[in-house]
Amino acid sequence: MNKVLMQGNKIIAEAAIRAGCLFYAGYPITPQNEIPEYMSERLRQVKGGVFVQSESEIAAIHMVIGASAAGARSMTSSSSPGISLKQEGISSLAACELPAVIVNMMRGGPGLGNICPAQGDYFQATRGGGHGDYRVIVLGPDSAQELADLTMDAFELADRYRTPVMILADGMMGQMMEPVVFKKPKPRDYPESFIMKGAGAGKSKIIRGLILDPLEMEEHNWRLHRKYELIAQKETRHELYKADDAEIIIVAYGTGARIAEGAIKRLREAGLRAGLFRPISLWPFPTNELRDLAKKVENFLVFEMSTGQMVEDVRLAIQGRARIGFHGRPGGVVPTPIELANVIGRLYDRKEGIIDRIV
Amino acid sequence: MKKVFGRPQSMKGNIFHYCAGCGHSIAHRLIAEVIDELDIRGITIGVPPAGCAVLAYNYFDIDMIEAQHGRGPATATGIKRALPDRIVFSYQGDGDLAAIGIAESFHAANRGENITVIFMNNAVYGMTGGQMAPTSILGQKTTTSSAGRENVLDGYPIQVSEIFSLLPGTAYIERCTVNSPANILKTKKAIRKSFQYQIDGIGFSLIEILSPCPTNWKMTPIDSCRWIDEVMSKQFPLGVIKDVPAEAAKERKEREPKS
After folding, report:
1. Would the CB atoms of B78 and A65 count as touching at under 8 Å?
2. Residues facing A169 on adjacent strands
3. Is there a single domain that holds both residue A174 and residue A36?
4. Phi, psi of B87, rounded to the nearest 5 degrees
5. DSSP alpha helices (H): ranges in chain B?
6. What's the CATH code of the domain at A326?
7. What SS3 class is residue A89?
8. Cβ neighbour number for residue B1 with a 10 Å cutoff
9. By the 8 A CB rule, do A197 and B78 touch?
10. How far is residue A241's CA from residue A76's CA, in Å, rounded to a whole number?
11. Confidence band (pLDDT; 50, 70, 90) for A358?
12. By CB count within 10 A, which of A40, A120, B29, B199 is most buried?
């Protein structure tokens, strides 16, 4: 497969089609409209492909529930306010153990916010988002290539663990163009026995989230929990950049990590030894990997396009073993690498342990 | 000895948890009988709602996926679009269809999804203990309208079937009730027709069933049946509201030259 230049939103859509996504339902919202537009075209060309422009975000996620139960690889996409609406259905997908992929191209919030790139939905994405005791696998791509790769991986993970998987990116990732190579997707491996298609001559099946007996419901919760523990053990992903000799590590994901890389290049040119720890799986968070890094690095700076959400996971991982600082630009402001480099440069100049307090 | 009456194959045989005099158990049985008669048990998928009928899957012996409150027609849309040759129905109450899920229901109807919606209208929120429903009658006392429903505060009872019949996407809409043997037979006929239309690919059907809720109406089962005749069916008149294939057939017949 050749390298092609494509816009982020379209890359996700094309990757989904190649991964065998047969059902998409969604509702227009900026900055992700190219996903439904692209899916509406492409699904028409695919045998058995279904595109529905739903009446709401809520309807879209519940259509995805139906299609997923009926055995179709299914996806919906939206941006922050629309993802809030979908939470009821995401909770149901988790409860009923149905696979689906949900894309959130985050924008500035809270409320209607704006349509600029932001990372304010980290809590919502990584803590479950809807009601009840559940988790969603959350992947945070930082390049066109990862938009493609992680979208394909998302469908596989959703099937393997029968659980919703979210691609958490932002308006910038969705709107920018970059070269991408689509990898060859693996054939789907999803047991027929999970698919609801009518009882045939056999025993009828029930898919439900309602379990009235508290002890039975408790066991269902523990069973889901054990599954989430297994996911945490096996599916954690992260990437390091110039971390080997670093005196300070920036922790950032997605667009934030791209900005951090630019900042690190500038800092390195000035002789400052900065590196990057980039969580790729935001849930499960690469806790152990970050903790190991804190054995040899004393200074961490968390950078997010929010007032500070992932920083809580960083604190939980590092547990006071190193100093943690924070720089945030919420509300749709995308800072330049120079701004971030300056922030780190100033901290660095103070010398007495770069970050001056433990938070 | 010849067996003349038994449990439909599409029912599991569990004892209904529904209150004495409730319409759900009758409606369940009618649907199951129709599924048996049309021999579609193996290809039918039901979508029960939140509400008293959430446990429908304990009674139907067919594949069932429970929907969140009001989302039945969206979930049914997903199933039907993914598996167009299956028979899909949603089973919804008045709060489910006419309040929290009116958007999902209205738009599934407007898209002409080839599904059947069974709409149980008992003018009250049953499972939660008798609160006012979008279909509560003006003056009807409920736990959230203790002085009786008042239009200035609470709006008017929603005529779901009439409103949906205006949508070009709907093929067949009939309002029935299960308050007497004759009405039960009519209801079964309507359910059967709606499933047959779906099998024939004709499109969206909605069968509204005025259903007694003695517990929350605070009436005896007999009084409840009477109340449907005397009050409820005055607000929600019984009968075929829309039947596109029948109307088309009638038109064709009228246009035929008389020999």
Report:
1. yes
2. A105
3. yes
4. -100, 120
5. 24-37, 72-82, 94-95, 102-110, 151-154, 160-165, 181-199, 214-217, 221-227, 233-235, 244-255
6. 3.40.50.920
7. helix
8. 3
9. no
10. 32
11. very low
12. A120
Tokens found for residue B16? 């209904």
- Tell me the nearest-neighbour CA distance from B249 into chain A, angstroms: 32
Domains of chain B: 24-255 (3.40.50.970)
Q: Say how far apart CA A68 and CA A116 lie, in whole Å.
A: 31
Residue of B63, B104, B113 to mutate when probing chain A, most A C-beta within 10 A: B63
Any idea what the Cα angle at residue A38 is, between residues A101 and A92, rounded to 5°? 20
Residue A49 touches partner B, C-beta closer than 8 Å: no
The CATH number of the domain holding residue A22 is 3.40.50.970
Q: Which domain holds residue A299?
A: 239-349
Residue pair A302/A327 in contact (Cβ under 8 Å)? The answer is yes
Secondary structure in 3-state letters for A313-355: HHHHHHCCCCEEEEEECCCCCCCCHHHHHHHHHHHHHCCCCCC
Same domain, A8 and A66: yes
pTM for the structure as a whole: 0.96
Residue where a domain terminates, one of A213, A234, A255: A234
Q: Which of A62, A68, A199 sits opposite B104 (nearest CB)?
A: A62
Q: Which residues of A touch B44 (CB under 8 A)?
A: 198
Measured between alpha carbons, how far is A323 from B75 in angstroms, rounded to an integer? 49
Inter-chain touch A67–B107, beta carbons under 8 Å: no
Beta-strand pair B131-132/B124-125: antiparallel
- DSSP assigned state of A284: S
Q: Out of A206, A234, A262, pick the residue that ends a domain.
A: A234
pLDDT at A51 over 60: yes
pLDDT of residue A352: 55
Sheet holding B63-65, edge to edge: A206-207, B63-65, B44-47, B87-93, B116-121, B204-210, B170-177, B239-243
Residue A77 is assigned to a structural domain of this protein: yes
The answer to whether the beta carbons of residues A283 and A136 sit under 8 Å apart is yes
